[in-house]
Amino acid sequence: SSELNLLLGDYESAIEKLNRASTLLNEYEIGGGNSNDLSQKKAKIFENLSTAYSGNKEPKASISASKMSFDLLNSSYSVNKNDNLGREAAKICITISEIYQSIGELENSKTYSDQALTILDEITKDSLLIERDQYLYAAANLQLGLTLGLKEQYSQSREYMKSQIAKAMGGIGATRGRQL
């Protein structure tokens, strides 16, 4: 299986298998069942493909696969307002931001960190934060703080970092959203 190839570090075989799987899913729409489930399965294939490309040192291809995963999850979330789909979309945004940061595309990195925070704000606007939301907020704000530091926007970066340290020290009582 492609996941076994990923675990064993055989990224080229994983890429080949995952590309085949994504082609089959796109060519043959499967009828019946829950469309959210199908979107999640397709998104997972692209997420795994992104991991394989990343392991194979192909960051642009990794970003492209992650964006496919994000588009599937975000469009399904936009239609169905399923918070778990939104959380998955936010997680993919953070991944895309990290990859952009690793190749020095800091404005794109910032854009995807902001997108993750926007999705999380929408999910949590009328509810208490669950632990996973707190983790995703912390990861997105931390990523944004790191990116701002690399962009030499040190005061903003420091505020995001201080905010995340305070949240980590405060545990479950952490707040939501942007701190600036």
Classify the beta-strand content into a percent band: under 5%
> In DSSP terms, counting alpha (H) and pi (I) runs of 4 or more, how many helices?
8
Task: Outline the biggest β-sheet.
Answer: none
Principal-axis shape equals globular
Order of helices and strands: HHHHHHHH
Q: Which whole number gives the mean pLDDT?
A: 83
Low-confidence stretches: 172-176
Distance between the termini: 45 Å
- Rg (CA only): 17 Å
Portion in helices: over 70%
Q: What oligomeric assembly is this protein in?
A: single chain
Structural class: mainly alpha
Number of strands: 0
Summarize the structure.
The protein is built from 8 helices and no strands. The protein is an all-alpha fold.
